[in-house]
Amino acid sequence: MEHLVLASIAAATPLLVAAIGELMVERAGVLNLGVEGMMVMGAVSSFGVALWTGWPLVGLLAGIIVGMLMALVFAILTQSFAASQVVAGIALTLLGLGLSGFIGAALAGHAAIGLKPIYIPFLTDIPVLGRILFGQHIVTYLSIALVAGVAWFLFNTRLGLILRGIGNNHDAADALGFDVIATRYACIVFGGACAGLAGGHLALTLSDMPQWSDNITAGRGFIALALVAFAAWWPWRLLAAAWLLGAVTIFGPEARRLGLDLPAELWAALPYLVTILVLAVMSGTGLLSRANAPANLGRPFLPGR
Description:
By secondary structure, the protein is mainly alpha-helical. The protein has helices at 2-27, 35-53, 56-80, 85-104, 129-134, 138-156, 158-168, 170-175, 180-204, 220-230, 235-257, 264-284. Helices cover 70% and strands 0% of the residues. The model has no long low-confidence stretch (mean pLDDT 89).
């Protein structure tokens, strides 16, 4: 039981971190489909810097910075030049996948120092609950803190109210004197930082001495996008949805270990099939259209027009 919970949380952590960043972006009325590209660039940057310096935490910082730079490119295109958010996001993903493959070719066959789970004497040694509550990686605790912080910011601060107002009606917010473009820039860069952190965590927790694997994110950025809609743009629902999908992700390997002899490819595809099924059901029943989606999501802001 302990093993299953630990594996589920480990699988859910990068999804949750990337998704909470995208939730902030979408709450501001911007749709960034480039999460996958930012994640994979964060992953390759984190791995490369950790390999070079021997410090995995410095690698994580590098992943965050690269994710922010990738997001800044998207922000310039979509906010300063009013480019299509869908096209710019897809381009960002393709750029990230191609560039990470090029950089990762030089990293293949090398092993970096991975992130170690936190160990607290006595507490981590408590049977069953010790490792679950007090023996996780630092990014796992940070992911929960991010959810709590985003929830508090959105619904308990004036700036959060302004941000939600911009996402629902950017023209009215602009008329009231709020800087729509600057707010969206900040949210987009925050989303990029989260995506880069998620990718870095993924790359540095594969094992104690992780090795680089091409296309390491394997579509997790797109799952993070779907999770935001699945959670109806509510942070705490997002936490539950990510952990649920984490459990689905590790169900395949565990089922095979218990003797359910089905093709490995089917088990590997299970998280994606579940994501598609849930979104299809939500769309078919009208739940997605009645969800808490920002009214201006994906619409460009053109001041003075």
